[in-house]
């Protein structure tokens, strides 16, 4: 009995020690004033909201998306939140899922104008729902290209500079459908699961260089992309999880399951801030 009590006491002491030490070993929040933040899929939805939040805190922003007119409109909206007259919002129209060489070149140009990338937030993504056998094979190919390779290419383009500087943050926006497979999401869910695998493997490689990787798992969020998705969503797949989710930390990867949409600016800060052990 005494041995059991001693063992329990040791476990409790160990947990308390981890709790006390975790703030010391966790990465410090990135200082956004003057930082160069690149946001893919930044012309609307979660990407736009994150860009606004970063700009409010003094960051220089590079917005990347396909639609140039939407980019310019978003640029005007973001500039309303400037905190000093030196801030810049740079717009680049490019499809991040197609030509890696082109993606690499435009990000090189962005860094020449605004300096090295301090944080890359991969928000570019799309969704198609439907029964497995009803979906065209091209849907699977397109979603894997946009949702997965659309994050691989920009991250690959900035990682070398981050290593040289021994600093940087990379954020992958997954989905709660990237934690749990859902009816009607056979084309979408695997692409979001893939981001977690990429993030966990990448973090192992870059942690020695003081580069940290974050994965966000937002639920259904009120964005233009979700409005399009809902048009094809089947009734049986509407029972998705809603709410703010939870923080999870796993082997140095910072997993965020909080809503970060157009009307959720209070939660967007969670996406741009490393896990600090406090829910």
Strand content: 5-15%
Report the order of strands and helices.
HEHEHEHEHEHEHEEH
Shape: globular
Main beta-sheet strand count, sense and barrel state = 8 strands, mixed
Mean of residue pLDDT values:
80
Helix content: 40-55%
Characterization of this structure:
- With 279 residues, this protein is an alpha/beta fold.
- Helix content is 44%, strand content 14%.
- The chain has 8 helices and 8 strands; from the N terminus they run αβαβαβαβαβαβαββα.
- Strands 3-2-1-4-5-6-8-7 form an 8-stranded mixed β-sheet, with helices on both faces.
- Strand 7 (247-250) and strand 8 form a beta hairpin.
- Helix 2 packs across helix 8.
- The longest helix has 29 residues, at 137-165.
- Residues 235-269 and 271-279 have low confidence and may be disordered.
Short descriptors:
8 helices, 8 strands, 44% helix, globular, alpha/beta, 279 residues
Layout of SSEs?
Elements: H1 2-25, E1 36-40, H2 45-56, E2 60-65, H3 68-79, E3 89-93, H4 100-114, E4 119-122, H5 137-165, E5 168-173, H6 189-206, E6 211-216, H7 224-230, E7 247-250, E8 253-256, H8 265-271
Parallel strand pairs: 1-2, 1-4, 2-3, 4-5, 5-6, 6-8
Antiparallel strand pairs: 7-8
Summarize the structure.
With 279 residues, the chain is of the alpha/beta class.
